[in-house]
Design goal:
Elements lengths: L9 H20 L30 H14 L4 H10 L3 H5 L1 E2 L4 H20 L4 H31 L3 E2 L7 E2 L4 E4 L10 E4 L2 H10 L10 H15 L8 H14 L2 H8 L5 H8 L5 H7 L7 H6 L5
Antiparallel strand pairs: 1-2, 3-4, 4-5
C-alpha cells in the first residue's frame, strides 16, 4: 500500500522497495519483527541480466564546435561551459540555481495529486461523491496556482541564486578550482585540477570576483542558442560531466584520481565500469587540446594570479 501510494516511476519504486527490504531485514535481525514483509525479487528461469547503459557523452569534435559557437554567440557563458566540460563540475556547482521550492508549494502540489486520485475513485460512484471530488480538485488547483504566483513574485524580488562557482575560488597560478561544501552535491569541499586547455579558457575570461556563470535562466537560454547553432537537439542531464569523465579516463586511466576530482561519493571502481572504453586515447587527446580562439597569446601577455 505504501509503494502504491508513491507518485513515482518504476525505478524510484524499485529503490523504495530495496530500501524497505533492507530496513525490515534489520528489524528481523534485531527480533523486532518475525518476518520480512518485503519479498526478495528473484529472476525467473532463463531471465536475461539487464545490460548496463552507456552514459551519455559528447564526442570531442562536437565539444570543439560547441565551445567555438559559445565564444561566437555568448562569450559570457564560455568560461562556465569550459569548467563543466574540462573540470567536470556539476551544473549546480558551476551555475547554481534559484532557491528550492518552499514546503507550502510542495504541499500544494501533493494536494493536487491526492485529490486527482480521489476523483478517479469517485468517478466510479458518480453523483454527489463525484461532484464533491471535482470541487476539491478545483480548489486544490486554485491554491497551487496562487502559491506558484507568490513564489514567482518572491523570486523577482530576490533573484539571488543558491550554489554556483565564484571567480574568487578559481586559482590560476596554482591551477585549481575550489568547490565549497555549500555548493557541492555531497556537502564536501574538494579541489579540482585545472588542465592545460582549461587554463587558457579561464585566463581569457578571468575576473577577480563574481559568478563565473550568468544567472540560471540566462545561462540556459545561451546554451539553447548554442545547441541550435551546432545542430544539437537535446541537452542530456550531466552530459558535460559524463564527457569529462569519459575523456579523463581515456587519457589517464586513473580511477582514484578521477573519483577525487569529480567528488564522486560511490566506489572508485564504479567510474571504471561506467567510463572505461567509451573513447579512444586519440579522441581524448583531441578533447584535451580544445582551446579558445587566440587564448595562448592572451595568456602569455598577462600576469595570472
Amino acid at each position: 500500500a505504501f509503494l502504491d501510494g508513491r507518485d513515482c516511476g518504476k525505478v524510484t519504486r524499485e529503490s523504495w522497495r530495496k530500501c524497505l527490504r533492507a530496513f525490515f531485514a534489520f528489524c528481523v535481525e534485531r527480533k523486532v519483527v518475525e518476518v520480512n514483509p518485503v519479498p526478495e525479487r528473484k529472476r525467473g528461469k532463463g531471465a536475461k541480466v539487464a545490460r548496463k547503459s552507456i552514459p551519455d557523452f559528447m564526442r570531442a569534435q562536437m565539444v570543439e564546435r560547441f565551445m567555438e559557437k559559445a565564444e561566437e554567440l555568448h562569450p559570457e557563458s564560455a568560461p562556465a561551459l569550459a569548467v563543466m566540460f574540462f573540470a567536470g563540475l556539476r551544473p549546480f556547482e558551476v551555475g547554481g540555481q534559484y532557491g528550492l521550492e518552499s514546503p507550502e508549494v510542495t504541499e500544494a502540489r501533493v494536494a493536487v495529486v491526492e485529490t486527482k486520485k480521489r476523483l478517479n475513485e469517485a468517478e466510479r460512484h458518480g453523483g454527489k461523491i463525484e461532484r464533491e471530488a471535482r470541487k476539491a480538485l478545483e480548489a486544490a488547483r486554485g491554491n497551487l496556482v496562487t502559491m506558484l504566483a507568490e513564489a514567482k513574485k518572491d523570486r523577482r524580488n530576490t533573484p539571488a541564486t543558491m550554489g554556483g562557482l565564484d571567480w574568487s575560488n578559481v586559482n590560476l597560478s596554482k591551477r585549481f578550482i575550489r568547490v565549497l561544501p555549500e555548493t557541492s552535491k555531497t556537502g564536501a569541499a574538494r579541489l579540482v585540477d585545472i588542465s592545460d586547455n582549461l587554463l587558457l579558457w579561464l585566463a581569457k575570461y578571468h575576473k577577480a570576483s563574481g559568478p563565473v556563470a550568468p544567472p540560471p535562466p540566462t545561462f540556459k537560454r545561451h546554451r539553447q542558442d548554442i545547441m541550435e547553432a551546432v545542430g544539437l537537439k537535446k541537452w542530456l542531464p550531466d552530459v558535460a560531466r559524463h564527457t569529462y569523465a569519459t575523456m579523463a579516463f581515456a587519457m589517464w586511466e586513473n580511477q582514484d584520481k578521477l573519483q577525487a576530482q569529480m567528488g564522486h561519493a560511490g566506489k572508485a571502481y564504479i567510474l571504471t565500469n561506467h567510463y572505461k572504453g567509451l573513447a579512444t586515447k586519440a579522441e581524448a587527446e583531441t578533447f584535451w587540446n580544445i582551446e579558445p580562439a587566440g587564448a595562448k597569446g592572451a595568456a602569455q601577455g598577462r600576469t595570472i594570479q
